[in-house]
Amino acid sequence: MAVLLFTIYFINRRREGWAFTFTGLHIVLTQIAFFTLMYPRVMISSTNPAWSLTIYNASSSQYTLGVMSIVALIFVPIVLAYQGWTYYIFRKRISAKKASLVY
Fold this sequence. Notes:
single chain; 103 residues; two-stranded antiparallel sheet; 2 strands; flat
């Protein structure tokens, strides 16, 4: 809750970077709290608690995890490089000064 109050404070002070950072922090902390409260369950059964999906019966096999690790090692750097290239190409297209002239 305090993170959202800081976000509002930074929005009112026109500190967009800090407001964005604290909004992201709020999302991360909310997810951490949610999954910490549910641990070790992934999905709780509404009919019978014994039928809940847990991290143990929801996990993939060792082979699948190995294959996906290799795929991730190959494609995550490609995606990050593409994101960096996109940021580099569009870095000077819009500024706050030009955007304010539209209104």
